[in-house]
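Q: My labmate handed me this sequence with no annotations at all. I'd like to see what the chain might look like in three dimensions before we decide whether it's worth expressing. Could you predict it?
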Amino acid sequence: MVTTKAPTHVPGRQRFGGLLNGDYQTFLALFGFGALFTAFQNLPKLRDFLFGQSVVDFPAVFGLLIVLCAMFWRGLLRRGFVWAEPAALTWMDFARVDRRRVVVKRMWTLWAGLVLVVGYTGALVTAIGGGAKDVWIAMSALTASGAILAAVTARRTAIRGETLAPVVLAVAGLAFAAAGLGPVAVEVLAGALFVVAVAVAFGGEPMSGVGRQELVDGWNARLLRAMAAVFMDPMLLIPESKPVPWLSLRRPTTLRLAWAGVLGRARYAAASVVIACLVGVAHLAFPAIPAAALFTLGAYAALVPFVGGLGELWRNPGRRRWLGASDWELRLVNGLVIALLGLAWGILLGLVTLLLGVAPVWPVWLAIPLAVFAALRTATRPPMNYDVSGGAAGLQALRGVDVLVVGAVLLSVIA
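A: Here is what I predict for the chain of 415 residues:
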């Protein structure tokens, strides 16, 4: 008789993420699913909020879903699922448990969550617009093919230049929205993505076979993010910089360190391009949403990863004394560098809006310098003061975001 080994449960780890334990996780899951279901009961209100009195532009909605698939793909290519708690990893090695199964399970859990977000967005917007049967088929085919492509690329080791692939897909979404292509073209694109997924599925080493050091490094990064959330320190969420050899060999100055902080995070440039595409297509697809709000949030999300270098210096007095630069010099030099990045991102967004044939009024473009100022304000936040009440501590954590929200509201009123 052939027997199969029962799955081994790691001691102390909740099954199903704690969703069935009757604790707060269960409440949040029930509340979340209830909110998602309730949205389909308020389609007229959502239609007024997203489209107003305008006719639903399904080509623009197709383009939006394509760009969302690109963001989903880019997020999964970060491979944030490659981690393991050192204690659990030691136990698994002692008990001869296959660590690959743990990594693969976590990848599929993250993948399923992203598929849910993209699929739900497509289904909700299609239901709001009263899409016909061919629209539903095209949306489903695109979501399924994009999910398959993201899974087969994320489960294997990195391919050189793979971060450019989501950018290409996002540009394709712009082209679909600008050309007004219909469901048939979307189904053709879905078929092409599936063919690419089949071609990429063969070859390469699975990410589940990574070594112990990579798993522990991933755990350390995850633990840092968790502690940043607990202690309300958003600057710790900004990714670490990679070394820039040609700058590290020269005498450090404020300007060189500012550029090193930016160039060391150049891997997030592709995500910034995808965000610009998403903002432009969302402005075309949802005309009732104020463009100032979309531009402000998009610019802030695109720029805030690049202020990590300033944030590291600001929260480390020893490094600031070693550099010998004053506070105003750090703000001025890093502000100029981030302003140049903001100008470049604004030009990119201008090209996107020009391609889509939308022309926002001029006050909307003030969202770019507003986002630059908000990002710098976030990076130069003073240390948290935990002697105050919880509400005041929360306001400290929102430094930068407060200016962003108030400025977006004012720009929406002016525009």
